[in-house]
Amino acid sequence: MTKDRVIRAMARDGRVRVITCHTTELVRELARRHHTWPVVTAALGRTASIAAMMATLLKNHESITVKIEGDGPIGYLVVEALPSGDVRGYPGNPHVHLPPNSQGKLDVGGAIGRGHLYVVRDTGLRSYYTSSSELVSGEIADDFTYYFATSEQTPSAVGAGVLVGTDNVPIVAGGFLIQLMPGHTEEDAAYVEERLAGVPSVTGFLEKYPAADALLFKLFPDAHILAMQDVRFRCKCSYSRLRDVLLSLGAKELRDIRDEQGQAELTCHFCGNVYTFGREALDEMIAEIEQQGVSAP
């Protein structure tokens, strides 16, 4: 089985940056955890693939969160990606079904609708940088192409695809991010267009050659690989993190939960894991909060 991987490279003597990815297992896991229907699987998978590629441009302690908000039935998509290759995400509504679009494909644009794309970069130093752009089609890749042009002033071409089988399981997923670097020429731009014409379908190519490096060298035979990173679904939720969330509610609200429900049950949006805190655990948290109040100056 081919590993999910992101590859970052340069072409045209450093005047073109190209990133490719193969993300089939990642998208399968997202679909499995959130029980998504095909059009949502495609939307979430495209977003996760692009976020994974963007994360390769971050420093080790940074992370990126992409949020797409539209007026379509999905509502919103949220994906977080780290340079380590860890990716997680979730949809607002996992159960959306629409007729095929005019090309006979999954109508991701109709499922997303009109709205905005937000990108938040966490520097890991308690500072966040947010940029945004309008959605131009809801088809995800087009929206990111527009985002890079308007918010980052970087001429880019973005492609991402998810092929979903009749059993609702993703067959293949992946994509590319191509950017013209400072100092590029008109000939470089024309060359990029020429190379893109040779790959009219990302999923069509990856279904035959399921590997990020195969896609890279199909697009740019002269590419020079700078870095490779395995990609996987991984959530950073834990019992202690969710316990801290409950502690932040305060003693009074925890007492109300204990007395009315007997326990607290929290579900992680990103992975679907359920964490249960029984009466004894709630009593311990209440006592901890009260003890902190007594010892405070």
From TrEMBL:
One of its GO terms (biological process) is protein refolding. HAMAP family: HslO (MF_00117). This is 33 kDa chaperonin. Under oxidizing conditions two disulfide bonds are formed involving the reactive cysteines. Under reducing conditions zinc is bound to the reactive cysteines and the protein is inactive. Its main location: cytoplasm. Signal peptide: none annotated. Disulfide bonds join 235-237, 268-271. It is found in: Cytoplasm. Redox regulated molecular chaperone. Protects both thermally unfolding and oxidatively damaged proteins from irreversible aggregation. Plays an important role in the bacterial defense system toward oxidative stress. Belongs to the HSP33 family. GO terms for molecular function: protein folding chaperone; unfolded protein binding. CDD domains: Hsp33. Keywords: Chaperone, Cytoplasm, Disulfide bond, Redox-active center, Zinc. It comes from Alicyclobacillus acidocaldarius subsp. acidocaldarius (strain ATCC 27009 / DSM 446 / BCRC 14685 / JCM 5260 / KCTC 1825 / NBRC 15652 / NCIMB 11725 / NRRL B-14509 / 104-IA). One of its GO terms (cellular component) is cytoplasm. InterPro entries: Heat_shock_Hsp33, Heat_shock_Hsp33_C, Heat_shock_Hsp33_N. It comes from the Bacteria. The gene is hslO.
